[in-house]
């Protein structure tokens, strides 16, 4: 490249600048696919045909042991995709060269399921070593979790590769909307990732399973007015008002069917029984009210739209082709 540039005369400096700009653009655009166009449901059909059954066997055992794990695995995929794309970066432990995402504010003492991912990776490696990425394992495990807990099934697009680094600052930058979010912040954060307001509402329906810590819903149950009073009192019994007291006490996100993936989350919002501020704000005389009303009445529409949104989310900026790597251990780069 240096020899090529040296033969260009000084009078053509503008040409050199243009060439350099083109080179930079090619390098940057080539580092990540902006969408999942290079992903395919058949990606492992020849190289690892047993990958889906292998992943599901581990997820099924983990969820049978603890129903909450299904929600935890689903959330890992979401928190992975929103930071720097669906690249498995959330799984990386800290190293001497970077601090990873695990201790970021949205993740610390919150995201979980890393041991289950380790178990899945170990089983997959025993079947087809060096073939399946950790990023794809997260996507498959998320689908399996929804399926096992009674939700819809879909064919997962695969072919993602793993990042070799992670970023604490990126995870802390607000790309993952906090449970205190306003409606506009939720919409904006999802739109920044190519997801519509409708996608945001339907993906929020994942809160039909899982639990949350007292520290993230304390203000809602003591200080907000758009909440059912008996629901608030019930939650207060296990979440004391003083900060620092019972912070890690858990409550189910869906008071109606806490371990079943269904549309009860939306029915709860109609009755002002959303546990998080960011849940109830979706039904609070705002632009998303109609979605909540629709999904509360039509479980099939919710299931279909959830699948569509999950596939879109899984398409966020994957590493493909020769970019990234296939980690041998999901916790560290090769």
TrEMBL record:
<keyword id="KW-0106">Calcium</keyword>
<dbReference type="InterPro" id="IPR019793">
    <property type="entry name" value="Peroxidases_heam-ligand_BS"/>
</dbReference>
<keyword id="KW-0560">Oxidoreductase</keyword>
<comment type="similarity">
    <text>Belongs to the peroxidase family. Ascorbate peroxidase subfamily.</text>
</comment>
<keyword id="KW-0376">Hydrogen peroxide</keyword>
<keyword id="KW-0472">Membrane</keyword>
<protein>
    <recommendedName>
        <fullName>Peroxidase</fullName>
        <ecNumber>1.11.1.7</ecNumber>
    </recommendedName>
</protein>
<keyword id="KW-0325">Glycoprotein</keyword>
<dbReference type="InterPro" id="IPR010255">
    <property type="entry name" value="Haem_peroxidase_sf"/>
</dbReference>
<dbReference type="InterPro" id="IPR033905">
    <property type="entry name" value="Secretory_peroxidase"/>
</dbReference>
<dbReference type="InterPro" id="IPR019794">
    <property type="entry name" value="Peroxidases_AS"/>
</dbReference>
<keyword id="KW-0349">Heme</keyword>
<keyword id="KW-0408">Iron</keyword>
<feature type="transmembrane region" description="Helical">
    <location>
        <begin position="6"/>
        <end position="28"/>
    </location>
</feature>
<keyword id="KW-1015">Disulfide bond</keyword>
<keyword id="KW-1133">Transmembrane helix</keyword>
<keyword id="KW-0479">Metal-binding</keyword>
<keyword id="KW-0575">Peroxidase</keyword>
<feature type="domain" description="Plant heme peroxidase family profile">
    <location>
        <begin position="38"/>
        <end position="334"/>
    </location>
</feature>
<dbReference type="InterPro" id="IPR000823">
    <property type="entry name" value="Peroxidase_pln"/>
</dbReference>
<comment type="similarity">
    <text>Belongs to the peroxidase family. Classical plant (class III) peroxidase subfamily.</text>
</comment>
<keyword id="KW-0964">Secreted</keyword>
<dbReference type="Pfam" id="PF00141">
    <property type="entry name" value="peroxidase"/>
</dbReference>
<keyword id="KW-0812">Transmembrane</keyword>
<comment type="function">
    <text>Removal of H(2)O(2), oxidation of toxic reductants, biosynthesis and degradation of lignin, suberization, auxin catabolism, response to environmental stresses such as wounding, pathogen attack and oxidative stress.</text>
</comment>
<dbReference type="InterPro" id="IPR002016">
    <property type="entry name" value="Haem_peroxidase"/>
</dbReference>
